[in-house]
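Narrative summary of target 7.
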Amino acid sequence: MTFNSSTRSLLMGTHGASLVLNKGIYNFCDFQVSGTNATLKIAASAVSPNVQIFIDSANREPGSGCKGDTEAGKLAFKNGFTIENPNTNATSLQIYVYDGSGGTIKFENNSSSAFYGTIIAPYSKVEFKSNGEFIGGIEANEVELINNFKFKWEAKAEEIRKEEKPRYQRKTWSECPPTYTGTNPQVGC
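Modeled conformation, tokenized:
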């Protein structure tokens, strides 16, 4: 497993590689698994707050620090990859991918274990291929399930929403000429 901090690139390229993520925010320019039988484990303590993985890209902003090549902005999990989320809560693992960055988000030839989580990439294609089960929620332009891959909606994923709190906005204003008495011009409006 290699991580390049200057390019924020994580590659799990060796057989049996394992990575444990504790609660927190993780930001990568690309995250790819090409090694066989690799495992991403979400810590059991990663519930509220949770694990959030952001896949950034040079397409978002030139100052993002991501390379502008074909590898930047990619998310690809392949070759018997397993995501272990003991929380069985789709909100405890959230994956956000900057749209228009690395092409199709790929989950190929994964293990048959269930993957609890959410994927938010509204303008991207998400492709699940060859076995496995995804339990959670997906926001994508297109989702393709190929060769015995199963999807189950998890109602807890509905908890992830855009902020809907009303914000203060000034609708009108009027000028009040001072009518002060005394020596302080700041009073008496």
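The mean pLDDT is 78.
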